[in-house]
Amino acid sequence: MSERLEVLLVGEGNFSFSVAVCESGDVENITASCLQTEQQAVAQEHAAHNIQRLRDRGCTVLFEVDCTCLNEHEVIRRSVYDRIIFNFPHCGRKSGVKKNRTLLAKFFISCAEVLKAWRRSACGSMQRPRRHSM
Ligand SMILES: C[S@@+](CC[C@H](N)C(=O)[O-])C[C@H]1O[C@@H](n2cnc3c(N)ncnc32)[C@H](O)[C@@H]1O
């Protein structure tokens, strides 16, 4: 990736993927997030250690981030990102294809509101991303 990219990771589990991205050295500004509360997140194996590794490297770690409404999060809404990554997106063990498709569709729509490229074009045209029915 190019230099000084602002990258947001959503839907993390124990934050091991975020640590891998961070330690790859390709990205300098990382915000790693998960849907769960901090208490729920650190209950997962290795999570507390991974979160500490991220913080030690200057990354921001956020909890209770719903990737389908990123613009409603008080920290995320004040930021703009070059890239947003959701590794292994999934609603949960028993959710079917339809539910997972809906999650992805809502995630993509939500991304548009906090992505640098869209914000820049929106300033010029005042257009919002079109919402498609799912
Ligand atoms: C299969 S796990 C993948 C975890 C992690 N990204 C990884 O690669 O190891 C799917 C993750 O998606 C998260 N998730 C599901 N719906 C979400 C939502 N609306 N917003 C944010 N995360 C969500 C779950 O909490 C879970 O951690």
UniProtKB/TrEMBL annotation:
Annotated coiled-coil segments of the chain: none
Molecular function (Gene Ontology), one example: rRNA (uridine-N3-)-methyltransferase activity
GO CC entries: cytoplasm
Domain of life: Eukaryota
Pfam families: BMT5-like
InterPro entries: BMT5-like (IPR019446)
GO BP terms, alphabetized: rRNA base methylation
Domain 25S rRNA (uridine-N(3))-methyltransferase BMT5-like, chain residue ranges per copy: 8-117
Protein name: 25S rRNA (uridine-N(3))-methyltransferase BMT5-like domain-containing protein
